[in-house]
Specification:
The chain contains seven helices and seven strands; from the N terminus they run αββααβααβββαβα. It has about 300 residues and is of the alpha+beta class. The strands form two sheets. The protein has a four-stranded antiparallel sheet with strand order 4-3-6-5. The longest helix is centred in the middle third of the chain and has 27 residues. The radius of gyration is 27 Å and the shape is elongated.
């Protein structure tokens, strides 16, 4: 047995338990969903640990069956009971969560133009003996920023007038050293598929073109196509996973300060994600530099 912090491991164990028993539907479009995939068990998928084998033991905390026993108190959680606890979410709880968070299940068909920031044109160092002053550098940067904003505004106006996004994206990259242009058609995208500073795009009506959205790498221009809300049945399993993790986390916080669990090392080494593992951020264009394309 090995001792670990309780909360992180139980949450990780929950995620594994659900991944081992259910297979969520594949997303319709990679751009519309987070690229994160739950950590899957390796080797035997944890099946070498029997369903009634203790995977978590909490000394000093009585379960209901041992509450009146003279034996020392302890709570034992088996692999089977852990998975049952993870999935014990009522239909009403699922429905209530869906109704309270409907906006999270809205999606829109998006097109996008990325306008990379232009870099100041510098003289050939071999032809210039004097190093440019700080004032000259700031002036060139300001001129470059103004030129990029002017180009973004122009492309946005033409996009709103109905011009082809692929053609406009080509013009946005003209004169740069970037070779690989990003796609303009993103497909169906939900709120978890956009950076926080671009979420307002999904509040636009179908057919609208956003104003240029600035970030350190350049400007983003979006056009919103068809919008819809995913039906409850399509996201039911996703909601169940969210509520199960939340339920276990809330329950274990109550005893985290007073209990020290003993975990079945074999079970967690095979099946559980690493404690504290974080989802990968959705890929988005990084800061643009000459010769470096957004991903």
């Amino acid at each position: 047995m090995v001792k670990y912090p309780l909360l992180c491991l139980l949450t990780g164990a929950l995620a594994w338990g659900q991944a081992a028993t259910t297979k969520p539907a594949a997303p319709k479009n990679p751009a519309a969903q987070s690229s994160t995939k739950p950590a899957m068990p390796s080797a035997s998928d944890g099946q070498s640990v029997g369903p009634q084998t203790a995977v978590i033991t909490i000394p000093g905390v009585c379960d209901k069956k041992a509450a009146t026993s003279a034996a020392p108190c302890k709570t034992v959680v088996t692999r089977e009971s852990l998975q049952e606890q993870a999935s014990n979410i009522s239909e009403k709880d699922l429905q209530d969560y869906y109704k309270a968070n409907t906006v999270a299940y809205e999606e829109a068909d998006l097109q996008r133009i990325f306008v990379p920031k232009l870099k100041p044109q510098e003289k050939d160092a071999a032809q210039s003996k004097d190093k440019p002053s700080e004032e000259d550098v700031k002036k060139k940067e300001q001129e470059s920023e103004e030129a990029t904003k002017k180009l973004a505004d122009s492309l946005r106006a033409r996009a709103a007038a109905g011009e082809d996004f692929d053609k406009l994206q080509d013009e946005a990259y003209a004169g740069t050293e970037m070779k690989n242009k990003p796609p303009t058609k993103l497909g169906k995208v939900r709120r978890n598929g956009l950076p926080p500073d671009q979420l307002a795009v999904l509040d636009s009506k179908s057919g609208e073109v956003s104003q240029p959205i600035a970030n350190p790498s350049g400007y983003f221009i979006y056009k919103v196509g068809e919008k819809n809300t995913l039906p409850f049945e399509q996201v039911k399993q996703e909601i169940s996973t969210t509520l199960s993790q939340q339920k276990l986390r809330d329950e274990m916080q109550a005893i985290q300060q007073s209990a020290t669990p003993e975990l079945n090392e074999k079970y967690f080494a095979e099946g559980a994600p690493a404690p504290g593992a974080k989802p990968e951020a959705l890929a988005k264009p990084p800061a643009a530099t000459n010769g470096a394309d957004p991903k």
